[in-house]
Amino acid sequence: MQCMMGSSVRGGLLLGCSLLVFAAGLAPPCRAGERELTEGPAPSDADRIETPLERAFLAPARKQPLIPWLSDRLDELPPFLADTRLEARFRTYYLRKDRTIDELSEAWAMGGSIYYQSGWLRDVFAFEAEWFTSQPIVARNGPLGAYLSE
Predict the structure, then answer these.
(1) Which of 109, 93, 102 is CA-nearest to residue 141?
(2) Which terminus, N or C, of the chain has the lesser number of Cβ atoms within 10 Å?
(3) Is the entire prediction scored with pTM above 0.85?
(4) How do residues 46-66 score in pLDDT, each as one tens digit?
C-alpha cells in the first residue's frame, strides 16, 4: 500500500509539472522594452526630450463646441464673453443595501448640473456658477428606504 501511495503522488506531481510546462509554452513571450521600439525616432535636440512625468501632465484637449458658428461669433467679442463656457453635466446614481432584516433597500436617482464660467474682465474679474439637481427615479424613504433623495 505504501508503494502504491508513493507512485500516485509521483504521478500526480509529474502530471502537474507537465501541465505547468505546457501552459508556460502557450503564454505570450515577455517583451520588456517593446514600448521604446514604438516611440519613434529620437529627438534631434536634448531640449526636446519629453520625460514620462511631462507626458503625464499634458494640458487637456479642449472640447469641440456643440454649435461651431456660435463659437466663431463669440471670438469676435471681448474676452469676458468670448471665453464663456456653458456645460450641461449629467449623472445617475444607484444605491442598493442588503439589510439583515430580509428586506432590500434600493434607490436610483438621476441628476446633474448646469455649469457657467465667464471669461476674465480686464484680467481682474470672472464669474463662475453651477446649479445642481437630483431627482429620484426609484426611491423609498422610511425605515426600509435608502434615503437617497433627501
Answers:
(1) 109
(2) N
(3) no
(4) 777 777 777 777 777 777 777
